[in-house]
């Protein structure tokens, strides 16, 4: 780099790994070591200040909670910004390993990010994916003309929201709504609000279900790395998985504390989350219900994605109801709790069927690198579609039917 003969910009990814593994590690001692190294780099005469000292926001799943809960490797301490740094700024990589097919857009989430991360030591964001390259469109199944050639153009709202709001957080929602109106006329007048409501499903699932590196969660598919295999998040996984957002309460903890009548009111408990999911998903469906998409395949995809996110939200709501009832039955007994679990999980499958009904005609079976699981070997059978995993979804109410009481109090 010195031999180039001109000042160079440097992006330095943190944290360092203190082992031979690539999963990273975090500690105050390691942060101190890393900070000293970066400060030495900033003093080099061929490095243009500031160095961008970059970390992954909530590891590989930034589209979860706007709170910084973890980085690559675990918890982040305050060493990099206390005292205030000179010669470098911290940047955040907001990775998206959760939605590639479905369009996404929640302006309030991005604004919450900006509001929490506008300190003097912050130098901006990097946005994008590692397991997906938004170039070839291997999603679109219909042969009718559409407004895009490349995959990134399908997700225009995602890129426009992040780009414009990072540049100027005062940008009003009307700017983005105007883009829908320009594309689709009056038929598009409610699409920004519909997407904001419906695609919040992704944020809520990823806040509820803790994740780490890339393959540990694929939000739009309700798929996670469970053990060594990538599979649908079955009901027991949902019950037992810790939350990512510390304000959320897992099903297991909720049932345990609810039986003891001791959980904090301000927490996002399963009943609170169920209410949020149902409220927003149902409103999104009402907003797009009357939109005529005939003779406009591009508009059809936008509306279909709202409907898909909304039905995924209703699926999660029913699944949570079933999970709470199932865990209550296992801990407390009561045949009626088991019957409720079976009924709710059957209803959740009904919403999954609706997702299949919407997406099967318009989306191809899509390559998904998450299906490599813990393996580094090539996987040529890594195709995803919601229809392909219906049997995994249906397993939930069989689990509930076969459940037994673990212990009684």
Q: How much beta, percentage-wise?
A: 5-15%
Query: What's the story with the biggest beta sheet?
Result: 4 strands, parallel
Task: Provide mean pLDDT, rounded.
Answer: 94
What is the terminal-to-terminal distance? 67 Å
Helix count from the secondary structure assignment: 13
Topology order in helix (H) and strand (E) letters: EHEEHEHHHHHEEHHHHHEEH
Please give the share of residues in helix. Answer: 40-55%
Structure summary, number of beta strands: 8
- Rg measurement, Å: 23 Å
What are the low-pLDDT stretches, counting only 5+ consecutive residues below 50? none
Order the strands across the largest sheet as they lie in space: 1-2-3-4
Provide keyphrases for this structure.
about 400 residues, alpha/beta, four-stranded parallel β-sheet, 13 helices, 8 strands, about 45% helix, globular
What does this structure look like?
α2 (107-116) runs parallel beside α4. 41% of the residues are buried. This protein is of the alpha/beta class. The protein contains 13 helices and 8 strands. The protein has helices at residues 28-42, 107-116, 151-154, 156-167, 173-184, 191-198, 200-208, 235-240, 251-259, 270-288, 297-332, 335-359, 390-401, and strands at residues 11-13, 51-56, 88-95, 122-128, 223-226, 229-232, 366-367, 383-384. The strands form 3 sheets. A 4-stranded parallel beta sheet has the order 1-2-3-4. Strands 5-6 form a two-stranded antiparallel ribbon. A two-stranded antiparallel ribbon has the order 7-8. It has a domain at 170-401. The model has no long low-confidence stretch (mean pLDDT 94). The protein starts with 10 loop residues before the first strand and ends in an 8-residue tail after the last helix.
């Amino acid at each position: 780099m010195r031999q180039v003969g001109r000042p160079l910009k440097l992006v330095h990814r943190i944290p360092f790994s203190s082992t031979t593994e690539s999963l990273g590690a975090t500690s105050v001692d390691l942060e101190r070591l890393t900070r000293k190294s970066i400060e030495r780099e900033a003093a080099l005469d061929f490095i243009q200040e500031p160095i961008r000292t970059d970390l992954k926001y909530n590891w590989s799943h930034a589209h979860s909670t706007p709170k910084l809960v973890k980085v690559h490797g675990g918890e982040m301490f305050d060493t990099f910004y206390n005292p205030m740094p000179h010669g470098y700024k911290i940047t955040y990589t907001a990775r998206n390993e959760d939605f590639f097919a479905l369009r996404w857009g929640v302006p309030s989430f991005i604004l919450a990010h900006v509001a929490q991360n506008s300190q003097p030591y912050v130098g901006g964001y990097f946005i994008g994916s590692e397991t997906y390259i938004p170039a070839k469109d291997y999603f679109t199944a219909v042969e009718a003309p559409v407004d895009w050639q490349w995959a990134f153009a399908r997700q225009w709202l995602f890129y426009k929201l992040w780009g414009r709001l990072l540049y100027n957080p005062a940008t009003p929602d009307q700017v983005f709504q105007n883009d829908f109106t320009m594309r689709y006329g009056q038929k598009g007048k409610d699409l920004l609000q519909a997407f904001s409501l419906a695609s919040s499903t992704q944020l809520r699932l990823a806040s509820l279900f803790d994740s780490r590196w890339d393959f540990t969660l694929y939000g739009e598919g309700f798929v996670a790395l469970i053990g060594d295999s990538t599979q649908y998040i079955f009901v027991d996984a949902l019950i037992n998985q810790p939350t990512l957002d510390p304000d959320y309460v897992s099903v297991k903890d909720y049932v345990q504390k609810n039986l003891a009548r001791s959980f904090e009111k301000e927490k996002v408990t399963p009943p609170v989350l169920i209410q949020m999911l149902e409220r927003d998903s149902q409103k999104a469906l009402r907003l797009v219900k009357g939109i005529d998409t005939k003779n406009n395949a591009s508009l059809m995809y936008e509306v279909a994605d709202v409907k898909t996110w909304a039905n995924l939200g209703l699926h999660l709501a029913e699944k949570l109801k079933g999970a709470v009832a199932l865990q209550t039955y296992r801990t407390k007994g009561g045949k009626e709790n088991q019957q409720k679990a079976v009924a709710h999980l059957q209803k959740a499958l009904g919403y999954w069927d609706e997702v299949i009904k919407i997406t099967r005609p318009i989306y191809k079976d899509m390559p998904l690198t998450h299906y490599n699981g813990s393996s580094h070997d090539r996987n040529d059978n890594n195709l995803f579609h919601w229809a392909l995993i219906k049997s995994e979804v249906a397993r939930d109410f069989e689990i509930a039917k076969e459940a037994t009481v673990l212990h009684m109090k």
